[in-house]
């Protein structure tokens, strides 16, 4: 399952190629609560078809009503980009289903040029990180490769967003937990790769859409070439497979690196990496374990929910409270049992 950004851009490109009239809509600014974050996109076709989302649905319905032939409107115009604001008054917020006090401003790109979309998609499909900048005064789009993701920005005249290759997840070790986690990751737009050198484990794999690699995990991690939109998770419970792979992973800029295991096993892993491989507490600061959020999970699907939630929090740069740390929560439980 590809990311929603790529789906919107690819669909807009395909519609324009087919001679359809299209508007590319982007959430440019929000005030108060908002259903979708800045940078969220959707493509709207002249007949009312929509891909992507800028709200919970009511604003999409209003855009269809105002701009397309689906409800008798004149259809999408050919003009320079314009700004549209929703939710300025309490009545509008109620009408469009915005949260209390919520306001958002949209940028409408009418009939965006096909060539820049083609160029952008080609770069994204090649794994590049790209800054897309729109000049609202001229409608011109500029593209620039970049090494660092930047925050979405909009000053009323220029809109800049960093778009990159889809998020990727490398799972080390086939098994029930890996299967549940792979399904959840795909639903969240991750491209999932599974590696396991043990043929008896790979043979039972049943999740479609996952690249399976039978090789030593450290070699796979090296070839995976993790970037800032990648995460690497070791699930084998076997230090002969996990340890070298984690050492390789820590040399990469992946946003999440972790390994399954109890508090004791996680401590033993850190001890091994320090004593036998020259690591330090500082060099291991990015290694997560035990992984997941503390939700009392016991079964593989529940543990997968816990791990996926932590991965998404890391992806979205959300600082989690200590209460959700498995190590700290279980330490508190130990104290309470001894009291």
TrEMBL record:
InterPro entries (UniProt xref): MoCofactor_Util/Proc, XdhC_CoxI, XdhC_Rossmann_dom
Protein name as annotated: Xanthine dehydrogenase accessory factor
Domain XdhC- CoxI: 15-69
Domain XdhC Rossmann span(s) in chain numbering: 169-311
Pfam family membership, one: XdhC_CoxI
UniProt superkingdom: Bacteria
């Amino acid at each position: 399952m590809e990311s929603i950004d790529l789906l919107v851009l690819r669909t807009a490109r395909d519609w324009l190629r087919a001679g359809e009239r299209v508007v590319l809509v982007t959430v440019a600014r929000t005030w108060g609560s908002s259903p979708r974050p800045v940078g969220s996109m959707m493509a709207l076709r002249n007949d009312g078809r929509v891909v992507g989302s800028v709200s919970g649905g009511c604003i999409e319905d209003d855009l269809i009503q105002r701009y397309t032939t689906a409800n008798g409107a004149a259809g999408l115009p050919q003009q320079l980009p314009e700004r549209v604001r929703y939710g300025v008054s309490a009545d509008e917020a109620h009408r469009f289903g915005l949260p209390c006090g919520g306001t958002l401003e949209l940028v409408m790109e009418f009939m965006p040029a096909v060539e820049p979309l083609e160029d952008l998609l080609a770069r994204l499909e090649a794994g590049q990180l790209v800054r897309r900048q729109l000049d609202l005064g001229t409608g011109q789009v500029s593209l620039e490769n970049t090494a660092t993701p930047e925050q979405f920005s909009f000053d009323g005249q220029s809109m800049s967003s960093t778009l990159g290759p889809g998020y990727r997840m490398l799972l080390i070790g086939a098994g029930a937990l890996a299967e549940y986690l792979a399904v959840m990751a795909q639903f969240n737009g991750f491209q999932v790769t599974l590696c396991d050198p043990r043929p008896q484990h790979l043979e039972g794999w049943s999740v479609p859409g996952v690249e399976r690699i039978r090789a030593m995990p450290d070699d796979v991690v090296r070839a995976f070439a993790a970037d800032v939109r990648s995460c690497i998770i070791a699930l084998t419970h076997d230090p002969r497979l996990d340890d070298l792979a984690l050492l390789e992973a820590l040399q990469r800029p992946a946003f999440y690196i972790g390994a399954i295991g109890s508090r004791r096993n996680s401590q033993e892993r850190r001890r091994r990496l320090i004593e036998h491989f020259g690591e330090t507490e500082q060099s291991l600061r990015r290694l997560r374990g035990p992984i997941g959020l503390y939700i009392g999970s016991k079964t593989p699907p529940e543990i997968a929910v816990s791990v996926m939630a932590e991965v998404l929090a890391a992806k979205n740069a959300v600082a989690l409270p200590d209460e959700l740390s498995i190590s700290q929560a279980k330490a508190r439980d130990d104290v309470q049992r001894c009291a």
